[in-house]
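Can't attach files on this board, so I'm pasting raw text. These are the components:
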Amino acid sequence: AQKVTQAQTEISVVEKEDVTLDCVYETRDTTYYLFWYKQPPSGELVFLIRRNSFDEQNEISGRYSWNFQKSTSSFNFTITASQVVDSAVYFCALSEAFGGGFKTIFGAGTRLFVKA
Amino acid sequence: DSGVTQTPKHLITATGQRVTLRCSPRSGDLSVYWYQQSLDQGLQFLIQYYNGEERAKGNILERFSAQQFPDLHSELNLSSLELGDSALYFCASSVADRADSPLHFGNGTRLTVT
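---
Top answer:
Structure tokens for the assembled complex are below.
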């Protein structure tokens, strides 16, 4: 069965520190997609990045970077030089075929506090 | 702003009652999804519609039902409400019925059952 585990419930850092959010997933499918979403205090979830199961190339986008390792079923997210505005709950998600459509399941989320 | 509109923002009702939550997807998106977010269960997938048809069903209770209308807006009906149904209900939309389509979420409807 699908499962997404975010072992870190809360992380607190001081501004300008680097922080890595961990995500481990379980699936029996060979084709699947991994996502990170951000939920700021205002409440709406915002899509950050997508990776497919065949693309293990890691990516850097500004202060964000992602490390996808299929061998360990991990899809970690790093924020470099964190800022107060990065304070939010971050969700890792896994999407794959389900029934006649598909479903995306989310981890429990990691709450990140960035202190000035 | 994701472009997904959910109404109402807040809803307070009593146990045993019935409520309807409404969602308008982003312009051009054909898929609509409903999620329930609570402190103990996290984000739970309820149901997916694509162009008016139900495509996938998750942990949706029999007391709950949903539909997607020809204009693509969707409604989630919750009946015989219980205290445990208090949660934040999110609607999301995506352009395609594909697993690689990112979800675009509305601001949610906070339901409080007293």
